[in-house]
Amino acid sequence: MLFDAHTHLNYAEFSEAERAERAQEIAESDVDFIIDVGDSVASSKQAIKDAADYPWCYAAVGLHPDQAMIVTNADVEAIRELAGAPKVQAIGEIGLDFYYGKDSRDEQVELFRKQIRLANELRMPMMIHTRDADGLTKDILLEEGAFSEERKSWFPLRPDENGEMISDARVQLHCYSGSLELAREYVKLGATFSIGGPLTFKNARKTVEVLKGIPLEYIMSETDAPFLAPEPKRGRANRSPYIEYTVRRMALLKSLDYEEAARITSTNARRFFNIDSDR
Questions:
Q1: Which of 56, 151, 237, 252 is the most buried (most CB within 10 A)?
Q2: Which of 267, 278, 226 is nearest to 36 (CA)?
Q3: Domain extent for 115
Q4: Burial class (CB in 10 A: 0-12, 13-18, 19+), 80
């Protein structure tokens, strides 16, 4: 019933026993599917392994902006090769992060552009990380054709909140924390948002505004586990089954039944990542 559209079962600091424990928790929970997201070559390889090991796990491969100062062209080529592995559904997570990485701005931009081009070349969905870089992130996505009519033509149409079929750029704004105004611009461009635990925080004014102001047809749910655990688990290591708290908050804010919010967000994610199988 639930879909964790961005998580890190591949987290490098997990021991194999810890990873197996978390996988068992997912298998026994109401989480039907996860996207295990790469942020380096090594974690992308682990995501592919996890996807091979577990039927409910799918992978994304990519280089996080915090890799920008150490990444090589060989790493980008490795991501290109890994993208062809079974059950790899997207390029990600890629983007810009100027909260910690102000000194690597130029390198981040270059890496971001390369990976958008790779997603376009391979005609794959992309998962975007952006922090303290909202305007530039959008500008680069536009400049590199992430919302072009050609790119949209590669993917099936999707229904809007009125049931009308509209074009889809298959661009996910992961852990979206930007403004409602920007979110509405992204909707018009063909993007989808993935919202996690911060929606449940007491200081989540902007995220709440976005959730209320954007139709749920443009929203997926995520954990970003082991980070950003929702209330009432805040302060602990996040886990995929905790996604229930975020979806319950979505349902409350949207005046929907929990089951309906879970169904809509899961349907959105399955469409976005082209997952037709049943758990």
A1: 151
A2: 226
A3: 2-273
A4: middle
Whether 36 and 224 have beta carbons less than 8 Å apart is answered as no
278 inside domain: no
To the question of whether residue 64 is assigned a binding role by annotation, the answer is no
Furthest-apart CA atoms within the chain: distance in Å: 49
How many domains does the chain fold into?
1
Question: Which tens digits make up the pLDDT trace of 177-199?
Answer: 889 999 999 999 999 999 999 99
Distances (CA, A) of 267 to 40, 154, 160, 271: 28, 20, 13, 6
Q: Is 185 annotated as a binding residue?
A: no
Rounded CA gap, 210 and 222, in Å? 15
Q: Which residues pair with 192 in a beta bridge?
A: 172
Tell me the pairing of strands 88-97 and 165-166. Answer: unpaired
Burial class (CB in 10 A: 0-12, 13-18, 19+), 122: middle
For residue 265, the domain's CATH number is 3.20.20.140
Of 248, 239, 247, give the one whose Cα is nearest residue 268: 247
100: pLDDT confidence band, cut at 50, 70 and 90? confident
| Beta pairing class for 158-159 and 165-166 | antiparallel
Tell me: is residue 134 an annotated ligand-binding position. Answer: no
